[in-house]
Amino acid sequence: MKAQKLLMDIRFERSLPDQNKEAVLNKIGQFVWEWHTTKDKNQVGNKYSVKKIKTTTKLAAVWKFKVSAGNRVLFMKGKDVEGLEEQDQDALVLLEFCTHDKQILTAREKAQVNLEGYLGESEQDRQSSNDVLRHQLEELLEQSVEQVARRHAERLEYNLATSITRPFKYMNIEDLVNLDKLQGIFYLNAEQRRCVNQPFAPFLLFGSAGSGKTTIGVYKLIQLLTGDPNLKVGYFTYSAQLSDTAKKIYANVKRNELSEEERRLQEGSIDFYPIKMYLRQYGGARKIVEYEQFHQEFYREAYANYMQTPKYKKACKGKEAYDVWKEIRGILKGFGGINWDLEVLKTSNGMLLEEVYIKLDAKYSPYNLEERQFLYKLACDYCEWLKRGNLYDENDLARAVLKSGTQFACYDWIVIDEVQDLSELEFYMLLNLVKSPENFLMSGDYHQTITPTYFDTRRIVNFLERHKLRYKEDENQVFLCTNYRNPQKMVEVGNHIAHLRQAVFGKDKRNDKDYERAMQKTVGKLFTLRGSRQEQLKLLEEAVQKAYTYIVVATESEKVDLQKRLKDYTHIFTISEIKGLENRYIIGYNLISSYQKKWETLCESIQRGIVVEESHLYRYLFNMLYVALTRTQENLCLMDEGIPLEQYETLLGCTPQDYDTFDVAAFDLLEVSTLLDFFQAALKLEAAGKYDRAIVAYQKLSLPQVPHRIALCEAKQYEEAGEYEVAAKLYQQEEDYEKAAACYDYTPHRYAYYTCLLAQGEDVFVDKVIRRADFNYTRDLAPYCKGPLKIKIESLCIRYGYQQLVGQEEKMMGQQLILLELQETLSRLEEAIRAEG
Questions:
Q1: Is 452 exposed, middle or buried (0-12, 13-18, 19+ CB in 10 A)?
Q2: How many angstroms separate the CA atoms of 20 and 165, rounded?
Q3: Residues contacting 514, CB < 8 A, separation 6+
Q4: Contacts of 644 (CB under 8 A, 6+ apart)
Q5: What are the tens digits of pLDDT across the range 110-120?
Q6: What pLDDT digit, counting tens, does each position of 602-636 carry?
Q7: Which of 37, 371, 599, 720 makes the best surface tag, with the fewest CB within 10 Å?
């Protein structure tokens, strides 16, 4: 199949009608194909009424073609689009779908009338009158759509650098019916193309939320593998959701950018791993202790005991479980060492030595001496608790992988996406998996460091310099400054927060980027409600009745309290939990007042122009506010008690729509959510890996799909816990054979694994089993060939073997023909030489 040249402004996608969408796309696809394959453009032009719109436009030239009566598509020719790559000059750029005046369409439909009521008219006369009336309405319809097209063309704006554009190369425009197939399909702007073409290794890619870091990383990998399809790449993320997203984007982009032969060559070149899945597989443990288990099974009891101990009561009081978990995971067990000497690998319990921890600079840990002494004692108790229960956390398993060394140098390249979510020990472990330590692409956003780590870009650069890896900031590091996700108002506020951060801490060239540019046309609204707790409760009670809202709080205790008060489990998140989720309306509850004294210190330093000594806590406050506002697709409402409007204005850089009382219309919460809306919201929670919340959300809905979705959530929970056999059986029961096969692959149950592969199709079985370089029939298949599986597997092996034999014979024949041609050429040359002599 030959690549086509078609670009589509995302506003065209949004202008398409829901009714008959598939038929409309088929007609558009047919036009595009004929335009590119027919030499005589006049012939295509006449067939589809292609005409240049004769009116004053903001663009070089706008054209239209007829899809059907009353429907037009407005488009540009590539040669008229500024900044388009030379090879795309003959592309078509779809701008907008225009339809007729709906009143005329209604009249046309009503024209199917019977005129029997008119006296004196025969049947023939009545039919003639009907035909005349329909013809007149058809003419009106065409005139109407021509007027609509002209009006739309006059106001149309399109700029390749500031518009979101999808390219269609090997994919068809008909794929617009399924938007999942289009995830990651974007025409790269100059900034993004520079990143993809950057030849240097290592490559550090930083960008704001919604800047396309994952997509650009995937494009870069495809370019890398196109140059050498034999490379083996490991793609690592912290969250399973991001890993699935990256895998889906890779499949989509590969299907659109590469020919069938190029796609085949890249098959199996990339291993996609959420870090915890990798650690389970190679660290020697199935279950990993995570925050919830730490909180419920260890910290609650430990906190109560220490509060009864006079020596530690003061240092212990008020310590949130999440903050303690962050200190243990990020510093005490996950710190690489000031000089990256990895002291945690040298101790028996995998912790820093106490004297080293106590002496750490405040930029590494925000706690004072007394608090550090308490936290170190608590961490030692935690390690003993792990040992007694034969339990392991992520850092333990990263140490195990490093000590075994069996996976070292197994990849030619690795990608680490959202690196700020990893501990330094996990980062170091991943770099040991690549053959040449400089061959990695790392992406993330320092200003989204919310997860329990102390990530700092400067620490990564320090690692590169310490290990004498070639690194130049201007060549190896790129910041992306285009925001494709958030409305304009939120991008403006985000830029102001960045300005404040720099005013407080001073500009850091390794972490602070240029200000973001908003690509979304939505402006967005910013509200504040500073009224009584009763008024705030009214808003919150209204919000949990909507599928398009999330409530974000600063601390775990506030989340638990609010869940009890509102009797709602699915809408309320801490800042760390909301990462990876977006919704149209975000409500930030007590994000400022929870740290009021710290914010007052920051605001005072801003007003007086004083630079504050950087600490992780102060930086966390800015990051917390930034993450909250980047979760919204439209509106943000901040609710705090006792916060003056002036403080909001200082922090936000603008005056929000401020109210003392709640009114549902004023706060733009009138829209009622349907059953389908809540089902879509539950699907979103499931996709984000929030399985407990998703199950609760599904249980509230009376829909036939609910039992299936709940079963899948339970399967995913078992999978994440390392209970692969239980997960596989659930997936198989729900006919998700791809997931079932992936889980069975971690168990001894090969028969079940092969059964699930075959359920996906014979090609999948051949690719996953028979085509493997190390495939051995006697070892891999013969022991499991029994029952109905035996005949199917053996026939596949015979058929594949025959195809390989035929291919080899054809190759040999081709080589023989080439040899004969060479011999004939040599003979002719010898004759020519003799003739000249």
A1: buried
A2: 23
A3: 479, 481
A4: none
A5: 444 444 444 45
A6: 887 777 776 666 556 677 788 888 888 889 999 99
A7: 37
